[in-house]
Write a structure and sequence with these properties.
Catalytic activity: D-ribulose 5-phosphate = D-xylulose 5-phosphate
CATH class: Alpha Beta
CATH topology: TIM Barrel
GO biological process, one term: pentose catabolic process
Structural class: alpha/beta
Shape: globular
Number of strands: 8
Strand order of the largest sheet: 1-8-7-6-5-4-3-2
Family: Belongs to the ribulose-phosphate 3-epimerase family.
Protein name: Ribulose-phosphate 3-epimerase
Number of helices: 8
Largest sheet: 8 strands, parallel
Strand content: 15-25%
Order of helices and strands: EHEHEHEHEEHEHEHH
Cofactor: Zn(2+); a divalent metal cation; Fe(2+); Mn(2+)
Length: 217
């Protein structure tokens, strides 16, 4: 299991300090949610903030674009330091073209699905993706409650991956904490995105350790 702390729940007034605290536990990714106020009802950060963090942490940037017309900004985010860019199936007119464009930047290309979007919509792009991000809350805000029906979706995706002999990672984002992380991993998740349960209170590094400790081997 890999951890991708979401800075959406970090203290933006002390962002680098919070990231450094998380860095102590060597998370595999740093999840950066980019929202435009159109595709989702919130506005967060852009490539300038990511560029400002570049070189100040050794955690690879896992950039989640919750925006319309992502193609316009992919090059800018890649140059800012993204190691993985995730786009939404629901926001991409030509999804395969967008994924290939991301790959042409020499970085990982991933795709996200909102809770109500069926896995069938990804059938023909799965061989091209590095990760599939299953949203287990409706995107836009941190601190939401995990949608229980998404366990079945994670399990189904894991089955599809195995039956087709594919090797993308399954990333899961939304409402994950020490009480449910084991169930999420057991369902098939490889990468856990956690915001409130890491940055909400207490030390981020200690909280990562607690999340990892809650997963039964």
């Amino acid at each position: 299991m890999e951890i991708s702390p979401s800075i959406l729940s970090a203290d933006f007034g002390n962002l680098l300090s919070d990231i450094k605290k998380a860095e102590k536990e060597k998370p595999e990714f740093l999840h950066i949610d980019v929202m435009d106020g159109h595709f989702v009802p919130n506005i967060t950060i852009g490539p300038l903030v990511i560029k400002a963090l570049k070189g100040k942490t050794n955690i690879p940037f896992d950039v989640h674009l919750m925006i319309e017309d992502a193609d316009k900004y992919i090059k800018e985010f890649a140059e800012a330091g993204a190691k993985n860019i995730t786009v939404h199936q629901e926001a991409c007119l030509h999804l395969d073209r967008t994924l290939q464009f991301i790959k042409s930047m020499g970085i990982m290309a991933s795709v996200a699905l909102n809770p109500a979007t069926p896995l069938e919509t990804l059938k023909y792009v799965l061989p091209s993706v590095d990760m599939v991000l299953i949203m287990t809350v409706n995107p836009g805000f941190g601190g939401q409650v995990f949608i229980e029906e998404m366990y079945e979706k994670i399990r189904e995706l894991a089955y599809i991956r195995e039956s087709r002999g594919l090797n993308f990672k399954i990333e899961v984002d939304g409402g994950i904490n020490v009480d449910n992380i084991n169930d999420v991993v057991f369902a098939g998740a490889d990468v856990i995105v956690a915001g409130s349960s890491i940055f909400g209170s207490g030390d981020p590094g200690d909280n990562i350790k607690k999340l990892r400790g809650a997963v039964k081997r």
